[in-house]
Structures are given as C-alpha cells and as structure tokens.
Amino acid sequence: MKKSLPRSVYAVMGVVVLLFAGLVYAWTTFSKPLVNLWSQDLLTWTSTIVMVAFCLGGFFGGQMQKKGFSVKLNLIIAAVLMVAGFVIAGLAGNATGSIIIIYLGFGLLGGLGAGLAYNAVLSAVSGWFPDKQGLISGILLMGFGISAFLMGLLYAANVDQMDGKGGIPWYICFLAIGIGCFVFIVLGALVVKKPGIDFVAPAPKEGKKKKNTTAPYEELPPSQMVKRTSFWLMFVWAILVSVAGLAVMFLGTPIATAAVPALNDNASLLAIIVGLISIFNGIGRIIFGGMFDKIGYKATLVTVCVMFMISMGIIILALVTGSQLILIIAYIVTGLSYGGVTPSSSAFVNKFYGARNYGQNLPLITMNLLIASFGTKLVQAVQGGLMAGGMSNSGAYIIVLAGVAAICLIAGIIALLIKKPKTAEVAEQK
To answer: What Cα–Cα distance (Å) separates residue 92 from each residue in 180, 233, 360?
Structure first.
C-alpha cells in the first residue's frame, strides 16, 4: 500500500487545479480587447458554449471514472484540453481571424477541460473529508470561483486593450495562460488521488459527544438518484438561486452606474466595487460549506435564499438612495449569498446519494447551471424590454430585482420540501 500524504495536501492541490480550471469563466474580462475585432453579440456566445462544454466535460469525466480511468489521467487530459483551447483561441489573433476559432478553442475545448478537472478534483478530494463534506466543497469551489477575478486583474493590467496605450497582445496572453493551466493542472495530477478503501477520517476531537453525521443517507447510482423527489427539488432550487446570482453578476456594472452615476468617471473604483461580488462569492463558498456540515442541508439552503432576498432589497435601496456605501454592502451580501449555491449542491449530492457514485452524480446536479444561464438571459431580456418601453434604468432594475427576490422566495419554499430518506431518519433515531 502506497503511503498517503496528509489530506490537507490534497485539498491545497485541488484548490490550485481549480484556480486554473476556473479561468474559462473569466471570458468577460478576456474578451474586452476583442470587441475591436468582433461584435459583443458574437463574443457573448463564447460564454454559452463554455457553459455547455463545462457540463459535458463533467459528465464525460464521471463516465471515465466509472470505466476505471484514474484521476491522474482525467486531469492530464483536462490540462491538454485547456492549453489547446487557449492556444487555438489565440490563433484567431494572427491567423484567419474567425470567431469560430474562439468558439472551438476557448469555448469548446476550454470548457471541456474545465469540466473534466472540476469533476476529477471534487470527486477525489471530497473522499478524504467524509466528515467535512460541506467545508471541503466550499474550499475547493472557492478556488474555482475566485480564479476569474484574480486572473482578470492580472490580465487587465497587462493586456493591450487596443486603446493606444500599449500592452501585451491578447493572443500572447492567451498562450501564456494556456501554458500556466497545463503546468499547474499536470502538477495537480501528480498529487491528487482518491483515498484507498482502507482510509478512515481522523476521529473528532474529544469533547461534547455528537451523533455520527458522516455517513451518506443512501448509496445510489445516477439511474436511481434521478428517481428521487429530493434530487429534482434540489435541482430546481439550484436553478432558481443560480439565476439570482448570475443575473446580478451579469448586470453588476450597469446596476452600479445606475445607482451611482459618478462611477462612470472612475473605471478603477467601478471594477473594484463590482469585483466584490466575485471576492465574496469565494468567501461565501467556504462559509456556507461549513454551515452545511454544522447546521444541516435544510437550514443552509433556506439561509441562502433569505440572504439573496435581503441582498436584492439592499440593491434596490442603493438604486433609490444613490448611496455608494449601500451599493458596496449590497454587492458583498450578494456575493456571499451566491457563494452558498455550488458547495451546497456538491455536498448535498454526496450526503444524499453517497461517495461511491459521486463522480457520476455530481455532473447531473451541475447541469442546473446550463438552464440557469438561459434563465439569466431571460431576466436580461425583461430588463431590456422595460427600458425599451421608456422606463428609466433604475426603474427597470428595481422591477427585475423584485422579481429575482420572488424567485428566491420560491426557492426557499422548495428547500423546505426536501426530505431525507425514511431509512436515514430511522437510523438517526437509533
């Protein structure tokens, strides 16, 4: 038997891998110089392709693990796809100049690579922490979520924005980022692995006795999981709260300038304020992941919904008062709220349906992002329609935000309907 490293090492390397895999979600920042080459409408489709490819990558990753592919091989394939994606996308800068190359490289290959890495890391590293499923999900997903913000700052500070101020050509930046993804994901592949069947989590510290809550409620394959009402309720919950989070993230800049018009003249401050959503999204993932372990799934899911509704109210207050301070508070609370979605979904699948089939079950719950992305486009369309009808920017945003709050209320009610299996309830009573 090969000696294992301390489980904290697997957690750290998992975060490193996801920091680079999550870069495909920085497309909004990466694409800024490209508006001089292609229309914003054409560029926006890249994000949609990334989302579809990411979900497919996670699904394929789960199937590969089922067929015996190792975590190492999954991550190496992910590294190759990521570097190929960035390099191919960069070819559009000095080759044919076709937007199709961007779609194929960054969108399809990059998205597939990110999905493979995401699934491999979560399914492997979570196995080392059966006693802290929520917390480890939050820590890993913090890396995935905050990478776009960190790389966005570095990229924006060095890339040639094609505004006459100079900088590194965007396609050279893409090449450098792709190489970085390859190096660090392969490094992770050499370290990250699943625990052996003889692995036992460290015993809890002595003190107040408490029930053993590490055991999953059931061990189910995907074919059985999708027959559970609990799965579909959780799936709908995740869609609704993801729509709320994505809507504010996509509308973060225009909402900020509508609330505080002076931000139009201070691009740096505007970027910092809007960036608070991403920063606290990462922090929220750790907080809510830990909450899932401490207070259980139902209280955590409801808390996420309540915080979302509060954040929508604070944003509306910022629009009404024009207060920059209130806007900052609103974006912090929104980021924290959105941070509760992915770790809760990940930990939920592991807790309800077990670790044995986690790699195949996780991609199915992750599919909620695909539906949520189209739901977000609907929210944006409603906002655009209101403005086209002559309503002021602030008025249109207030109506949209009130609608999002209503969506979160519905999600909270759905969370209350989710019940653990009767077999689990009986076992806990013994």
So the answer is: 20, 43, 35
Domains of the chain: 7-191 (1.20.1250.20), 222-429 (1.20.1250.20)
pLDDT at 192: 94
1 pLDDT above the threshold of 50: no
pTM: 0.83
Q: What are phi and psi of 200, to 5 degrees?
A: -130, 130
Angle value at C-alpha 408, between 406 and 410, nearest 5 degrees: 75
Phi and psi torsions of 159, nearest 5°: -80, 150
Check whether 426 has a pLDDT greater than 70.
no
- Dist. CA 106–CA 55, nearest whole Å: 15
Q: Could you report the per-residue pLDDT of 46-84, keeping only the tens digit for each?
A: 888 998 899 999 999 999 988 889 999 999 999 999 999
Is residue 129 predicted with pLDDT exceeding 50? Answer: yes
- As a whole number, mean pLDDT of residues 295-310 equals 95
Of 164, 177, 156, 168, whose CA–CA distance to 105 is shortest?
Answer: 177
pLDDT beyond 60 at 218? yes
